[in-house]
Amino acid sequence: MAAPSIYHYHMRQDFNTNVDNNNSTATPMTDALNIHLQFSHVLELCYPETIQIPLNTTIESHLFPRQLFLSHVTRENIIKEILYSTGCSSDFVETVAPDISSFALDMVTDPCNASSSEPLTMVLAILVTTPYDEREEIDRALNDSLMQETSRFKPASKSCIDGLKRMSLEGSCSMKECMVCLEEFLMGSEVVCLPCGHIFHGDCIVRWLETSHLCPLCRFAMPR
Hints:
EC number: 2.3.2.27
Strand order of the largest sheet: 1-4-2-3
Domain RING-type: 178-219
Structural class: alpha+beta
Keywords: Metal-binding, Zinc, Zinc-finger
Number of helices: 6
GO molecular function, one term: zinc ion binding
InterPro entries: Znf_RING, Znf_RING/FYVE/PHD
Number of strands: 7
């Protein structure tokens, strides 16, 4: 099962952001609350190293009359509509909407803000991180292969195993470790490259092929 997405959010009043009425969801107004949304969704690759890949970034302003936020129902509906527009999960939206709604109410009712007729700006930043652990996917593929019925495990032929070409690992290699023993490759170590292109420690792949004629990663069939 894939790991669930992780949500982070925070709100703050921004005294420096200029409201761009051309990008807002309402007509120009002064006595208003500008909800400045900064939404990011990233895919986090966890193996072989942690890398974050941007999937979606949204920066937009939503301008509303302040009086709308005096009503509990109205302000929560506004917040939920904004959150749902980003594709956030319903669990996240229903959980955080009251907190964000309360912050918006505090802003519009704050005596320090009440005297100003200029739009107030609330920055709402949301970061969604979806983990993808390639190592887990590889391990799962290996486990699924190992749990197949015994009748489906047919060893590679002895001539095929004897004919494996061994070589010394030199230069760059996209595979960082042997996916049979899960130990890292060392420069200069002896490896075997199967016809499918996957590389393994020589002794490891020999033991594997003595049990199954299929590549442990892509199921390429070796002669039986």
